[in-house]
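Bumping my old thread because nobody answered last time. Still need a sequence for this structure:
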């Protein structure tokens, strides 16, 4: 799984403080945000110990700016993400603004197995659309590889 998140820390990596700060902006539906916080807590307590596929998170530079919450909340969030980079099945990489390719910039998750890409999840405000068409798979896979080439592992602000 490769997840591209250009402007926010990916949901599954968010700390409770960061998620709370996002909710306080009014941009998230409070009921949905509460359910996401619960799901995130469950993910954070179970994911590191469970076997499973490799996850690559590509996070855009805009996600490292304190537009939701205080600089301290953002620093705690970035410290938590940095700690996850030591997980053997997880790669978290930073994509500088100058490294973002033109074209596809919306958040997406690319799902692959040994045979190749098989689905893309493109998130919307209230959900996601899963794409499986070969042309879409090829385009998003190319974009994911381009982002990975431009990303740095130690370039956190």
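Sorry it took so long. Here it is:
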């Amino acid at each position: 799984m490769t997840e591209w998140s250009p402007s926010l820390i990916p949901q599954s990596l968010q700390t409770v403080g960061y998620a709370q700060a996002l909710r306080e902006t009014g941009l998230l539906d409070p009921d949905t945000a509460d359910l996401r916080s619960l799901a995130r807590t469950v993910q954070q307590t179970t994911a590191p110990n469970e076997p499973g596929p490799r996850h690559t998170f590509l996070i855009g530079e805009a996600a490292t700016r304190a537009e939701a919450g205080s600089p301290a909340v953002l620093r705690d969030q970035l410290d938590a993400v940095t700690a996850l980079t030591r997980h053997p099945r997880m790669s978290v990489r930073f994509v500088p603004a100058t490294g973002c390719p033109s074209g596809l910039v919306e958040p997406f998750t690319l799902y692959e197995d040994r045979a190749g890409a098989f689905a893309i999840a493109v998130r919307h405000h209230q959900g996601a659309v899963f794409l499986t068409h070969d042309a879409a798979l090829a385009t998003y896979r190319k974009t994911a590889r381009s982002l990975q080439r431009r990303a740095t592992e130690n370039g956190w602000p």
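Confidence is low (pLDDT under 50) at residues 37-46. Let me know if any region looks off to you.
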